[in-house]
Design brief:
- It is a single chain.
- 83% of the residues lie in helices and 0% in strands.
- It is mainly α.
- The two termini are 23 Å apart.
Amino acid sequence: MVKKLVRVSMSYMIIGLLFGVYYRELTKWFDFSGKTQLSTLHTHTLVLGMFFFLIVLLLEKNFHITAHKWYKRFYITYNIGLGITLLLMLIHGTMTVMGIESSAAISGIAGLGHIIMTIGLGFFFAILFGSVEEHA
C-alpha cells in the first residue's frame, strides 16, 4: 500500500508539471495574457494531488490508516473528485484561452467534482480520527 501512495503522488506530480507546460505553451500560442483557470491548475494538482498523498504516506507510516475499513472509500472517492475537478479546470481554462464561451454545465460538473472530493475528505478525516484514537 505504501508503494501505491508513492506512485499516486508521483503521478500527480507528473500531471501537475505537464499542466504547467500546457498552460505556458497554450497561452503563448494564443498570445493570451488574461486570467484563466489554467494558471492555477498546476498548483492545484501539485498541492491536492502530490503533496496531499505524500502527507497520507506519512500518516500511514505512523497510524496505519490504510488498514481502516473506510480507506478504500476515501481513496477512490477523493481521486474521482479531484480528477473531475482538475479536468474541468483544464477544459474551462482552455476554453477561456481559446476565446470560447463557457456554459453553466461546466461550472455544475466542476461543482460535482468539488462535492465528491469533499465527501472523500470526510472519509479521510473519519479514518484519521479513528486511527489516531487507536494509536493513542
